Amino acid sequence: MGTMTDATPTSSDPTNGNGRRLIRHARRLDNVAYEIRGPISAEAERLERQGTEILKLNTGNPEIFGFRAPEAAVRSIIDNIGTAQGYSTAKGVPEVRESIVRRYAEVPGFPEFDVEDVFLGNGVSELILMVTAGLLSPGDEVLVPMPDYPLWTAATSLAGGTAVHYRCDEDADWNPDLEDLRSKVSDRTRAIVVVNPNNPTGAVYSREILEGIVRVARENDLLLLSDEIYDRILYDDAEHISVATLAPDLLTITFNGLSKAYLAAGYRAGWMVLTGPKDHATEYIQGLELLAGTRLCSNVPAQYAIPAALETHQDIFDLTAHRGRLLEQRDIAYEGINSIDGLSTVKPMGALYNFARIDRNVHDIHDDAKLMLDLLRQEHILLVQGTGFNWDAPDHFRVVTLPPKDQLSEAIERLGNFLAHYRQ
Ligand SMILES: Cc1ncc(COP(=O)(O)O)c(C=O)c1O
Fold this sequence. Notes:
The chain is α/β, with parallel strands linked by helices. It has helices spanning about 40-50, 70-80, 95-105, 125-135, 150-160, 180-185, 205-220, 245, 280-295, 300-305, 305-310, 315-320, 325-340, 370-380, 405-420, and strands spanning about 55, 120, 140-145, 160-170, 175, 190-195, 225, 250-255, 270-275, 345, 355-360, 380, 385, 395-400. The protein is built from 15 helices and 14 strands.
C-alpha cells in the first residue's frame, strides 16, 4: 500500500471525474482580466480556423492593417542581428538608452535625466508589470482611469494591489474628473496612472487637467505613472503635454515604445524613464533594477530598432496630418458611429480608437459582452465591450480605427444594420 504524500489528493482537494487533483490558477489571477484578447477574441480565432473571415477591430496592431515600421528601424535590426546574440545589460544596450535620452531632450520642459534612468522592456507591457510588481504590497492602491487600458488594472491586481478607478467624464470630452480623482485617494494610495493620449477614449488632456492630476499627486506624495505610448498620434490641433514636464519635483515614470507611433508592435520594444527626485525612492528603484535583472534583458535585436525609429518622425506625422490615412480613418469612424441611431461618440483627438456610447433607451443592452459575441457570430466583426476597459456600465464598446477607409465604413454600416434589429 502506498504512503500518503503531499501529492496524494486528500478529500479536501477538488478532483476531476478521473480522480486527478485539479491544477488551478493562483488565486491572485481571480481578479485579472484582459478582454482585448479574451474569450470573444478566442471565439473569433475559432471561426477563422473554420474558414470564416473576421474583421478584427479589437487590437491596436498596425501591421495587420498594412502599416509598416520605418524602413530604417527594420534595417537597423538586420544590420545588428549578428552582434545582438548576447544578453545586454539588464536595463538595455547603453547606446540605445542614450538615443532615448536624446529624444526627450527635444521635448520642451522635459526634466533632464541620465542613461541610468532609462529601462528598456519587451514592450511597455512588460514594464507595466515590472513597476507594479515592484511597488505594491497587499492592500496598496493605485488610481487608474475608468475606462482604462486594462493592463494597468490587471497588473495592479496581479501584483497584489487594488486598482481604484477614477472616472473620466464623457460629457467633458473624456477628461478625468479631478474631484472624483481626489475623492479616491486613501492612505493606501501609492500611485496615479495617467494614460494620455488615452486608450480607449482618444482624449488628449489639457494642461489644466494634467496640472490638476499632478497637484493631487503632490499633495499626497504619490508616484506618477504616465503611459504616453500615443504621444505622437495626435489629430487636428491637439498638443501632447508630458506629465513629467509639469512635475519636475515628483518622481514620475514615463512609458513609451515602438508599438504605435513607430508602427512596430511585434518588435516588443518599449522603454520607461524615471525623472524627478529619487533620494526617497532608492529602495523602489533598486527593486526595479532587481526585476529588470531577473528577466535578464529585453530582446536585444529589437532594442537596435529604437535609435533608428526615433530618428524618423515623419512617417507618423504624415499619417495623422491633413489627408493622412489615420486622420481620415478617425473621421470615418467618428462620423459613421454618430450617424447610427442610438450610438454616439466623442471625437478622438489622439490614439487609434473610438469609445462609442450605446443609448440604452434606444437599444436595451444589459450585457455588452453578449452584444460583442452576437455581433461577431452574425456579422463577423470583432470589437471589445466597454466593461473590458473596466467601464462600469454595459453601454460602451471600442472600435479600432486602423482599418482602411472601405473596411471601416463597411464595418460601421454592418454594425448599424445589426443594431437596428438586435434585441437582448
Ligand atoms: C495605453 C497602452 N499602453 C501600453 C500598451 C502596450 O504596449 P506595448 O506593445 O509596448 O507592450 C498599449 C497597447 O495597446 C496601450 O494601448
